[in-house]
Amino acid sequence: MTPLLSVQGVTKHYGARLGCGNVNFDLWPGEVMGIVGESGSGKSTLLSCLSGQLAPDAGKVVFDTRAEGPRDVLTMSEPERRMLARTDWAFVHQNARDGLRMGVSAGGNVGERLMAVGARNYADIRAQAIDWLGRVEITEDRVDDRPRAFSGGMQQRLQIARNLVTGPRLVFMDEPTGGLDVSVQARLLDLLRGLVREMGLSAVIVTHDLAVVRLLADRLMVMKGGHVVETGLTDQVLDDPQHGYTQLLVSSVLQV
Amino acid sequence: MIRISDVSKSFVLHNQGSAVIPVMEGASLSVAPGECVALVGNSGAGKSTLMRMIYGNYLAGAGLIMVGDVDVARAEPREILTLRREVLGYVSQFLRVVPRVPTLEVVAEPVLAAGGSAEAGEARARELLARLNIPERLWSLSPTTFSGGEQQRVNIARGFAHGFPALLLDEPTASLDATNRAVVLELIAEAKARGAAIIGIFHDAEAREAVCDREIDVSGFTPARAA
After folding, report:
1. Residues B180-205: pLDDT tens digits?
2. Is residue B135 in some structural domain?
């Protein structure tokens, strides 16, 4: 078996300041990897480098493509990378507004991604959009409303539907539950876990919420100051942290 | 099935003056298929620590922890995840679930994770919940709102849902009434009969005598305290 994503020595500087330094890991099919760390630790920079939104200074990001096997995403041509971003990849932004088109109806937001990969039959596209809105618990009568008329939690669920409709194999998520109230968070977690299992998705999730990673992630990577300070099984890193910073992080969580 | 040799462990507390606390030294034991072994020793002797090292959520400092043909002390996370899905089950003292998920799905999940069908998972979950006397009207609700004893029983049902060849039980009979304790002991006896290797922590001496073939005193693995 080959890893779905193999990250080798990814480094990014902003001028003299380090964004992230020499990051290495392999992500296997069906695996969910969590990245935690305080703000400014480089986790979002790393996610942007992995998903082709930011060019790293050094390193390789090798993705196991359906057609041609493992290829370095960073040396692909722009059209190839865009095609990948529309088909096998998905990116769920922290702020749903960054991942949605606010002037287009909910159904249009989901359908647009289908049209980008060649779907042209209007009735099919609409039916698939309604099916996916149902899966993220948005009722059919809201399909023609614009995302602006949705609550924050609904916008986030719409963004997830838009991203997953093309059946991607790898999902990048940046704080998917950030800024939502806890009851909506629980709903999203349940939804994401079900989708990961049913569709066999692999995911890289950046968050600062340790409870979220414990429930969603198989493996965990802890970052500080641009460097990975600890990696391992999620419950091992949380129950028996080895690095001083991880120990501080775990012992700083407030008990409810 | 489970073989541990010369395992040691110490905790290093970086934020508390880098204190090093040795908690285990030279731990060795082995459990054959169909055998149930009880870990005994005073509170703090390291029973749960040893159990967590076998499950892989505590790192072993040194030594060998073989479960089937995987050395948990040295395996890649991916290998441990597969081991936990297929071979090694763990009933902890606390139920940890995604809020809002119905009890029936919580219990069926290990069956699905091990590759079973949705029907097989649901049938097994129904059978176990009924045996453990969880009222059927609660099955469609999330266990997060249940009483302590009910949560404990849901946790046990979940742990026994898939027929794991190796099982770790952390106080499975604590906080249960006599009827339910008898059901749990029955489940353990059935698991032994189908050939599961079991390591358990039981504070309840009667339960221990009923199902365990041997006792291992963990205080023998406690490092001598330097004065």
Report:
1. 999 999 999 999 999 999 999 998 88
2. yes
Report yes or no: A203 and A170 within 8 Å, Cβ to Cβ. Answer: yes
Measured between CA atoms, how close is B37 to chain A, in angstroms? Answer: 24
- CB-nearest to A190 from B59, B81, B101 is B101
Token pair for B85: 């899905």
Q: How do strand B197-201 and strand B166-170 relate by DSSP bridges?
A: parallel
DSSP type of residue A95: S
State which H helix or E strand residue A202 sits in. Answer: strand A202-206
Interface residues from chain A to B (CB-CB < 8 Å): 28, 31, 186-187, 189-190, 193, 197, 214-215, 218-219, 232-233, 235-236, 239-240, 242-244, 247-248, 251
What are the pLDDT digits (tens) for B15-36?
888 889 889 999 999 999 999 9
Q: Looking at the complex, does the CB of residue B21 fall below 8 Å from at least one CB of chain A?
A: no
How far is the C-alpha of A146 from the C-alpha of A150, rounded, in Å?
7
How many structural domains is chain B composed of?
Answer: 1
Tokens of A148: 């602006």
Chain B CB contacts of A230 below 8 Å? none
Three-class SS state of B20: strand
Q: Judge whether B130 lies within some domain.
A: yes
Q: What ipTM describes this predicted complex?
A: 0.87
Q: Are A119 and A133 in contact (CB under 8 A)?
A: no
Buried b / exposed e over B72-89, threshold 16 CB at 10 Å, is bbebebbebbebbbbbbb
Give the structural domain span for B115: 98-155
